Fold this sequence. Notes:
By secondary structure, this protein is mainly α. Helix content is 72%, strand content 0%. It has helices at residues 4-17, 22-33, 44-58, 62-87, 101-114, 116-122, 131-138, 143-171.
Amino acid sequence: MLDFSALLHAVTEFVKANQDWAPFVIFVIAFAESIALLSLFVPATAMLLAIGALIEASGIPMLPMWLAATLGAILGDALSYWIGWRYKDQARGFWPLSRQPELVARAEAFFHRFGFWGVAIGRFFGPLRAIIPLVAGILAMRQIPFQIANIGSAALWAFAMLAPGAAALKLMGH
């Protein structure tokens, strides 16, 4: 079993000690968080909020960090979409999704209810976040609408993940 608090500590300490690697680390976290099969194992929200505070505390420029998180999220969702599109219903049987069919069913219901907007707003809904692009691929959502929703929501999500940590530190006077 993964120790999420130890992982969070290790990642934030690494970023603090290796600021030049921060964009790469943020990219990898956002990418892993956005892949349907990996997202269940990556405590990305806590990591990105903590790194957001480090950005402010260390004077690391926010723009490259935001771009790295945005690009990671876009590519992770695009890969999840491609897996769904390529493997169709077989994708539902991939581990660990095969052990959580109710999660896939909830994502599918969400997607059917909201369509394009489901991809865009789904990024902000916990466990469904990384499953919805997979479902969009399984259900053969057209590529251009998917990518529009993907790119727009990734940019917003990346900001929402990084900015609160930075803002909290500013409010505390650091």
